[in-house]
Amino acid sequence: MITIHDKTFSPFISRDDIENRIAELAAQINSDYEGRSPLFIVVLNGAFLFASELVKNIPLSCEITFVRLSSYTATESTGKVRQIIGLEEKLTNRDVIIIEDIVDTGLTMHQLLLQIHALKPLSVEIATLLHKPEAIKKPVDLRYVGFEIPNRFVVGYGLDYDGVGRNLNALYVLPE
Ligand code: XMP
Ligand code: MG
């Protein structure tokens, strides 16, 4: 058990299970992108640990860049999505792989995809550590998914509860 602010979370997915699964995703990406040079777009803040573990297992020639956007307040999705901040790379003729921590309602990813497609990349795929299929409101095509999880709030491994918990090396879940 771990307490953050006013809430107590239970252990959910261990560091070993997360890192083994990320190695599997990396192997898939290595084989899918053999001979190509993808551009990874990491969605900050939540995806920073997932991204670093993923790309360490990807020996392809690639580029990694970072964007910020946020749609979340505390434990509920607001549905309000801000513009991409910080993308300076040209995406024309690039194979883009978006790296995200979690796809919950899908609203954030849907908005981000619209903005990225407008920049005319050659291809766009999504790698997300977590996906909550029961929460989805805007279905998006997720090529690489670490874990499908129930519709419960999780923290750790990059994900926060009101700013705290991102540094936890495993995932924790809020009991129902
Ligand atoms: P949507 O609903 O737009 O949400 O798919 C995506 C963003 O919301 C955050 N999010 C969470 N953050 N624990 C968190 O710490 C959760 O269980 C959770 N669910 C969604 C996350 O930032 C994601 O990018
Ligand atoms: Mg968050």
From TrEMBL:
GO terms for cellular component: cytosol. One of its GO terms (molecular function) is hypoxanthine phosphoribosyltransferase activity. CDD domains: PRTases_typeI (cd06223). The keyword Disulfide bond does not apply. Its EC number is 2.4.2.8. GO terms for biological process: GMP salvage; guanine salvage; hypoxanthine metabolic process; IMP salvage; purine ribonucleoside salvage. Pathway: Purine metabolism; IMP biosynthesis via salvage pathway; IMP from hypoxanthine: step 1/1. It comes from the Bacteria. It catalyses: GMP + diphosphate = guanine + 5-phospho-alpha-D-ribose 1-diphosphate; IMP + diphosphate = hypoxanthine + 5-phospho-alpha-D-ribose 1-diphosphate. Keywords: Cytoplasm, Glycosyltransferase, Magnesium, Metal-binding, Nucleotide-binding, Purine salvage, Transferase. It is an enzyme of class 2 (transferase). Its cofactor is Mg(2+). Signal peptide: none annotated. Pfam families: Pribosyltran (PF00156). Residues 16-161 form the Phosphoribosyltransferase domain. Its main location: cytoplasm. Belongs to the purine/pyrimidine phosphoribosyltransferase family. This is Hypoxanthine phosphoribosyltransferase. It comes from Dyadobacter frigoris.
